[in-house]
Design a protein that fits this description.
This protein is mainly alpha-helical. It is built from four helices and two strands.
Length: 94
Amino acid sequence: MTAFIPITIYLNHRPMVVASIAAAAKALQQPWPTMDKPSRLEAIRMIEECLAGHCSPQAAFAAFEAAATEQGLHKQKPPSVGLKKFDGVAEDLM
């Protein structure tokens, strides 16, 4: 089981599924469009802090996802038709 909801990022036009701190650390070691962008460096720092036990995994993963999104590596897909219907039903129940 994965620690987080998997996200797909595209490095060198190849998809990479990231669903754990270990996978995020591996992805951050790959070449990114802008290697010295502050959000990427912050994600690296937070992943290292998480691995050392000084930062929550949720915060570290969020920093990774934000950095990937900022550099255009993570493109969220729109919700499926089925998920939209489920959301509508859930709203009706509330």
